[in-house]
Amino acid sequence: MKNLKVFLQLFLTGFFLAFMLTALTQCPQENSVGPVDKPAVETREVKLFSQNVIIAFESNDKQTVLDLMYDEYKDIYEEVLNTTPDKMQTFAQALKNRKIIFANEMYAEYEITVDGQVFTIAYSNTGEGDWKLHRF
Fold first, then answer.
1. Inter-axis angle of helices 44-58 and 88-96, to 10 degrees?
2. Ramachandran quadrant class, 127 (left: phi over 0; alpha: psi -120 to 50; beta: rest)
3. If you ran DSSP here, which 8-state letter would residue 39 be given?
């Protein structure tokens, strides 16, 4: 019986210490503040580049669009522009209603809707301040 009494005292003391340790080392949930995401904001340069992209697609001239792209992507997108020349005007209209997803000083990505389908278009900075059409 004496051993049972000592065991019970040690058990309760351990339980109390564990409870206090847990209670004192946890932050209350209602006071914790996580990281706050800043909304994406277009810079003046990106807005100007967007206008150039819209003008290029409105011109219906594939070379004007290709001139806004990185050289390594031109071959791929030249085929796309050759097979869908009638879609350039539709794409230009969709760009006018673009929704920004992400933007910083090196990259900007938008969501556009063409004929009920949602697509993304991305621009990137060359590192020298020039913006290029990265993906559409």
1. 150
2. left
3. P
